[in-house]
Description:
This protein is of the alpha+beta class. It folds into 3 domains: 39-290, no CATH class; 301-437, Mog1/PsbP, alpha/beta/alpha sandwich (Protein Transport Mog1p, Chain A, 3-Layer(aba) Sandwich), CATH 3.40.1000.10; 450-495. It has helices at 10-18, 60-72, 80-96, 128-133, 137-152, 155-176, 179-214, 221-240, 257-269, 281-288, 354-358, 416-427, 434-439, 456-461, 469-476, and strands spanning 105-109, 116-118, 123-127, 292-293, 301-303, 306-309, 314-317, 323-327, 330-334, 340-348, 366-376, 379-388, 391-400, 403-411, 430-431, 443-449, 490-495. The strands form 4 sheets. Strands 8-9-10-14-13-12-11 form a 7-stranded antiparallel β-sheet, sandwiched between helices. The protein has a 4-stranded antiparallel β-sheet with strand order 5-6-7-15. A 3-stranded mixed β-sheet has the order 1-3-2.
Amino acid sequence: MAKTEPVISVRALVAAVALAAALSGCSTIDQQAVLGPPQQLPQATPAAPPQAPRTVGVDPLTAAEHKRLVAQFGGEYRWPAAENYLNAILVRLAAASDNPSAPYRVTILNSPIVNAFALPSGNLYISRGLLALANDSSEVAAVMAHEIGHVSAHHAAARAEQEKRAAVIQQAAHVIQSRQKGEEVEATQRLSFASFSRQQEIDADRIGVKVIAAAGFDPYGASRFLAQLGRSTALSAAVFGQPSADRPNILATHPSTPERIQQATLAARQIGAPGIGKSDRTGYLAAIDGMAFGEDPAEGVARGRRFFNTRQQIAFTAPEGFVLEIAPNALLGRRPDGSEALRVDSVPTPAGSLESYLSSGWLDGLVQSSIEKGVVGGMNALFATTRAGEWNFRVALVQDGDTLYRIMFAVRALNEDAERRFRASIDSFHRMSADEIAKAKSLRLRIVTAGLTDSAESMARKSAVSDRPLETFLVLNGLDAGAKLSFGEKYKIVVE
């Protein structure tokens, strides 16, 4: 929860109620990760293979872009085994690409979101959330080859030119024609962009399949990973109640996962039948064994109804029945039926009294008679009720030195039961003790070998994932419901 977030109106919170779980990553691959907690940074910088492609002579602009992107996604995640493994794959992919002399470099991002993208310079970025979802070398090779496809096809430059041309058309439409006509032209351009972006993604998939096959990897790795992505998105939809990313949307900037699976499979079939190429499941799983899984405790972690942030050293428990999700600048929560929601964020403590800040206009529909002072976790607090349309909001401001935490609950009927549950949740907000901070460990991936009696259910019981552990185990391992485990095979579980 960043301290730099601006004030938020109640109308904005109403919108957040409707979309409390609708978070998405900006990605050339697609959407969102399996839910599951923390991470901790390991040891030293890895020794990359001597022949590993590296970006050299990076100009200041590219360096600035790299720094900004890494910062936006939680920083760089250092895990020598995975970095060495990815660099070795990248050497082979670069050699098999249309431009084998182009410099490429991969950076692992400290983010649980399933994400991958590339800069035109050849800098590739893969989140640890994506690495947790992939199951073998051909799948992660397909991700990197897809990004190489974007770079080699100059998609970024083409898209920028398309957007620039559309901006000129839109401006002319507003000047020459009526505003209504201009808006029609703008809508047409949006549809054009969506189609253009979808075609870029399909083209990058096709290029990627050819590159991984030429590099000796299983060309069907691309379609397998896209299927994994579909499972992950479906699980996220089941947990958070958000619309499935597989549902076609005419204004979507990426094609639906089923479409991409179909196209990637067709591209692989043109190369050969299933069973060709390298996949190296065992080697890949060994490279990610022990990596962090889910959110970083320093950035904020949601485990069941409990939230804690070791950097800000605060903890909070949501009411019974709430599902929590961490947004870039806030903690969001909601009941699966959408009847109640919450938001917790922070801003710098304003000058003046909390009363004057509460009445300064950042909240719509403030009920003046509801304002009362109090204490939460030993910190000064102010409570109030606001109303906007059919929604009622219970708001608490909790001051911790230079930081002001804003806790907001939304409900249609603010009755005694809701008031009691919200107040109990607000009262749970507290500074973490040294013991709590010490116990706030990261969750990690652990690679285990299936025994004779092991099943998906028994593996799930070993998992530290609190929400839908069985479904999470199946998604992480690319398994369908009811799948039987193979004796002696390696599988991913999540442990503390």
